[in-house]
Write a structure and sequence with these properties.
The complex is a heterodimer of chains A (307) and B (658). With 307 residues, chain A is mainly alpha-helical. Chain A has one domain. Helices cover 69% and strands 1% of the residues of chain A. The longest helix of chain A is centred in the middle third of the chain and has 32 residues. Chain B is built from 25 helices and five strands. With 658 residues, chain B is mainly α. In chain B, strand 1 and strand 2 form a beta hairpin. Chain B is globular, with a radius of gyration of 26 Å. In chain B, strands 1-2 form a two-stranded antiparallel ribbon. Classes of the chains: A mainly alpha (307), B mainly alpha (658). At the A-B interface, strand 1, helix 3, helix 4, helix 5 and helix 9 of A face helix 17, helix 18, helix 19, helix 22 and strand 3 of B. Strand 1 of chain A pairs parallel with strand 3 of chain B.
Chain lengths: 307, 658
């Protein structure tokens, strides 16, 4: 239980709220409004947690449990992500496989809860989420596999501190970041894949699955999504962070700032780009897949034909 | 100890005879259960030293010519397979008692069914222990014919008879290929013994490659690898639930066992063998899981998922082969460990899923997920157990499916191949496996969500009763196994490590133990966090209000408006249209006041099966076309006849030599 451990833990609890606030603020600035306070999500969560939930008469216990399972998976994935650009709370060889499947668990929990209410809207959202994730998962593995092979590392935080490897081809690095950014957009349901602020159920993906959740359950889902956003952006931030991997406060501070920059960047994208047509979303995700594939092929430039 | 082991054979035969002789169905069931329990105990007691990693059990029986002697040898590999095959068959028989009760009430005689289940056990004892190809074929055939007869329990239904014959023909095509391989081996070694087969196979030669391919095809047919899977979905949807479970989870693992047995006989494989096993497994996993997304029949869906899961196991074995061929023991151990563990895990969760599907069928008499729904409230126990199986088969942590897939991933992603290209190829394969995992999550969410969640889609379906104790007890045991192997991966590794030592080239297993060790901490922690949050959620939800589902302002929603199975997979199917063909039957309204009722239906079929039949049909046309031309030219007919005569003459004369 060192200081770094506590710092990681504190970041895991606080940063998701800040990052959501940053996105909201950036979007407001682009549209010429003043915007909500940075900590708006914290106020929302507090308000929701006090409320009495309402359950559909169709639902079973699964519906009550699923949002909280989702939150737990998001937090557990945060335990092995390099939140502060250096050693995370826990790490072990091939923990990124565990990471991907823990996220999948949370996704399945939310999808099942969506099917539990017996509404066509929520079934639709679950189907879309399932399809998108099926193309997304290979992209994540291609990127992680390529980075892991390039550096000869096996844990998520070592893989993400790639820049320290002498002579790593810049192409791999750029493609990996591009691919992971798309993965982040899809996983956390941001534009142009999904519009979290839309008001039409037919166009939603993630939001439509949680239509029937209320009170503390909705709070768990909102905080879980925000946590996933922070965890995902921290991996990209570590890839970009020139001081990543070195112990000390500098790498941590730079990592957090980079997370904020990524949030601002995605907020800008959301403000300037319209949501894609649903049929075009798989093609957009295929870009992540292609980036991952090219990154994997590009590793051969460094490693040569034989290693 | 060998006597104790072989005593299980007469015990099983005696039990089978008793089931046929006794008067009441309950007594017949008891006879089968008692004999299986005795045989299982005998086998396990005699194999205890082998299971702990000690010497193999060996005995040689003299036998009249031309066999000379029959050798039995149960090494760690055979002992491992027996150790779970026999208890699981016992549980399946127990399940059958409850599942078949409605048939028994109608006066159906279950004697032969229970006798056949005993024969399935007998075939395991033979296949997993014998070292003689003739007796091996005998056991193989007993398993095939017994499984066929078990499948056609409802033989009054023509569809079920068709599915049964389809299976029978397919499995015998596999048998022919196996016999061909054994004949080749016999012609080279002049022996029926596996030991002398092994001496021949351990030397690389072109004939070894041919035999490897023949054996591979035969075992792939047995285990229902793509593209030899076409019999499987039909048979699984036609058979009673426990038979589907045993076939998918236990009986067809004999194909993979035989593959591993011959791998051990062969010793160090060539690199191309590894790549072919690996890509074959990958193809199976990919297409198996794609087909699950379109199925309406719950048991058919589970059948296709068997093709996927044996594919995942074969990916592990393929990496193991490569590791062996390259001389990288860590890769070989990791790959074989993943494959072996996945076999065991698959037996646990697939039987569980089939049993739960069976209890749904028993309660509703429907297996079409488009007509089910909302069963979680009526059958909470079956729903919970199905959910555990579904999460395990989708390889989600902290359950057991994840542990074996983790090992396969860690083999694929290890970066320890000798060349960069090979490493990159393995990483790309890992990405395909990730796709398979995600689609399997889609498919299982769909299967569980539509069957058990929401509200009932068809008001005409009534639910009679939750499964009786004889049905849920096996399910609970299987579910406990799936959870335990996930939370305590060392347990699983302990179970396979004596077998794994056979594949480890003399190296110790510390690498794979180290790979699994973190999961032993991570999985229980995750499980604890999930369980406590579920408890918290339950606590928070106490004071909840109840209301109708949000209908977007529309107040007259009905269960018919729920998302259906076809709509759930529609977008996915459109992405993979090339592999998932469908036929569309429609009669749309033609004028302002249509006189006929209009309808629209889409139906997904198995592309391989369809293509196979098409090719058979076309080949017939081609041959007919060619044969029409030949008699027109009498010279051709004469020449062909002469050629045939020369060949036959040459064969006769050549065969007369030494």
């Amino acid at each position: 239980m060192t200081f770094a451990w506590f710092a990681n833990f504190a970041a895991l609890l606080v940063m998701p709220i800040v990052l959501m606030g940053v996105i909201g603020r950036v979007k407001s600035l682009w549209s010429g409004r003043k915007g909500p306070p940075i900590l708006q999500l914290a106020f929302d969560l507090q308000r929701l947690a006090r409320k009495r939930p309402t359950y559909s008469t169709t639902t079973t216990l699964l519906f009550r449990v699923a949002p909280h399972l989702f939150l737990v998976t998001a937090l557990c994935s945060g335990a092995i992500a390099p939140l502060l650009g250096s050693r995370p709370i826990a790490s072990f060889p091939f923990d990124f496989v565990w990471f991907a499947y823990v996220w999948a668990f949370g996704r399945v929990a939310v999808m099942l809860a969506a099917l539990d209410v017996g509404s066509s809207f929520e079934g639709m959202g679950a189907a879309r989420e399932a399809v998108f994730s099926s193309i997304l998962e290979p992209a994540l593995f291609l990127v992680m596999g390529a980075l892991s092979f390039l550096g000869g590392h096996r844990t998520l935080h070592e893989i993400s501190t790639l820049h320290l490897q002498a002579g790593a081809p810049p192409a791999v690095w750029v493609l990996a970041v591009a691919s992971l950014l798309i993965v982040l957009q899809v996983e956390t349901s941001r534009m142009p894949v999904d519009d979290p602020s839309t008001h039409l159920e037919l166009t939603m993906v993630h939001e439509v699955m949680v239509l029937d959740h209320s009170g503390p359950d909705l709070a768990a889902i909102q905080f879980g999504s925000a946590t996933k956003f922070f965890v995902g952006s921290s991996i990209i931030a570590t890839l970009l962070n020139p001081w990543a991997g070195s112990p000390g406060w500098l790498s941590g501070a730079v990592n957090l700032i980079l997370c904020v920059v990524i949030a601002a960047l995605l907020g800008t994208v959301e403000s300037l780009v319209a949501r894609l047509k649903l049929r075009a979303v798989p093609q957009y995700i295929a870009v992540a897949l292609a980036c991952g594939g090219v990154a994997l092929l590009a590793t051969i430039w460094r490693t040569g034909a034989s290693r | 100890m060998t006597v104790v082991f072989l005593l299980s054979v007469p015990v099983l035969l005696l039990g089978a005879a008793l089931t046929l002789a006794l008067r009441s169905n309950l007594a017949r069931a008891m006879a089968a259960l008692a004999s299986q329990a005795t045989a299982t105990t005998l086998v396990l007691v005699s194999l205890l030293p082998t299971l702990r990693g000690d010497a193999a059990l060996e005995v040689v029986w003299p036998w009249p010519s031309p066999i000379h002697s029959i050798a039995f040898r149960v090494d760690a590999l055979g002992a491992f397979f027996l150790a779970w095959s026999l208890p699981m068959t016992f549980l399946g028989t127990l399940y059958a008692v409850g599942y078949l009760r409605p048939y028994f009430h109608r006066g159906r005689n279950g004697g032969s069914h229970f006798a056949l289940l005993n024969l399935v056990c007998l075939s395991f004892v033979l296949i997993y222990s014998v070292q003689n190809s003739l007796v091996f074929l005998l056991g193989w055939e007993i398993a095939a014919v017994a499984a066929w007869l078990l499948v056609i329990w409802d033989y009054g239904n023509q569809k079920i008879r068709f599915a049964g014959f389809n299976y029978l023909v397919s499995t015998h095509i596999g048998l022919f290929v196996l016999v061909a391989a054994f004949m080749l081996l016999h012609s080279e070694t002049h022996s029926m013994d596996f030991a002398s087969f092994g001496q021949f196979l351990s030397r690389p030669s072109p004939l070894r490659g041919t035999i490897f391919l023949l054996l591979g095809v035969s075992f792939a047919l047995k285990s229902a690898f793509f593209p030899f899977h076409t019999w499987l979905p039909r048979a699984h949807s036609a058979a009673p639930a426990h038979v589907s479970a045993l076939m998918s989870g236990v009986i067809h693992k004999a194909g993979l066992f035989a593959f591993l047995r011959f791998t051990l006989l062969m010793g160090k494989p060539e690199e191309w063998m590894g790549w072919s096993v690996l890509s074959f497994g990958l193809l199976s996993a990919f297409f198996g899981i794609l087909y699950t997304t379109t199925q309406r029949d719950l048991k058919r869906l589970l059948g296709y998922s068997s093709t996927e899961n044996v594919g995942i196991a074969a990916i592990g074995f393929g990496v193991g082969y490569l590791g062996w061929a390259w001389g990288v023991p860590s890769l070989a151990i990791c790959g074989f460990a993943g494959g072996l563990l996945h076999l065991l895990n698959h037996a646990f969760f697939k039987c569980l899923l089939f049993y739960a599907a069976g209890s749904v069928y028993r309660a509703t008499h429907i297996i079409d997920i488009e007509r089910l729904g909302g069963l979680a409230k009526r059958m909470p126990l079956s729903a919970t157990l199905f959910l555990i199986g579904a999460l395990a088969i989708a390889a989600l942590p902290p359950l057991n499916g994840f542990v074996s897939e983790f090992l396969v991933y860690s083999a694929l992603l290890s970066g320890s191949a000798p060349t960069g290209q090979a490493n990159i190829l393995l990483i790309a394969f890992a990405a395909v496996l990730a796709f398979v995992g995600a689609v399997s999550a889609l498919s299982m969410t769909r299967a569980f969500g539509l069957t058990f969640l929401g509200s009932p889609r068809d008001a005409k379906v009534d639910v009679s009763e939750e499964a009786p104790a004889s049905m849920w007890a096996p399910m609970v045991l299987h579910a406990l196994g799936a959870v335990a192997l996930g939370l305590v991966p060392q347990l699983a590794l302990g179970a396979i490590s004596p077998t794994l030592k056979l594949f480890s080239l003399g190296h110790d297993l510390s690498g794979v133990q180290a790979a699994v060790a973190p999961l032993a901490l991570a999985n229980p922690l995750l499980a604890g966090a999930l369980a406590s949050s579920a408890g918290l959620a339950w606590y928070l939800g106490r004071r909840a209000k109840r209301s109708a589902t949000w209908g977007c302002g529309y107040t007259a929603t009905s269960p018919r408006m729920q998302y259906t199975g076809s709509s759930f997979s529609e977008q996915f199917v459109r992405l993979f249209e090339a592999f998932l063909p469908s036929v569309r039957r429609e009669r749309l309204p033609d004028e302002a006041f249509p006189r006929h009722a209009s309808h629209l239906g889409t139906h997904h079929f198995d592309a391989v099966e369809r293509r196979m039949f098409e090719m058979l049909g076309q080949a017939e046309d081609l041959i007919a076309h060619a044969s029409e031309r030949i008699p027109e030219q009498s010279r051709f007919a004469f020449a062909a006849g002469l050629l045939a005569l020369v060949i036959i003459g040459a064969l006769v004369l050549g065969g007369a030599g030494p």
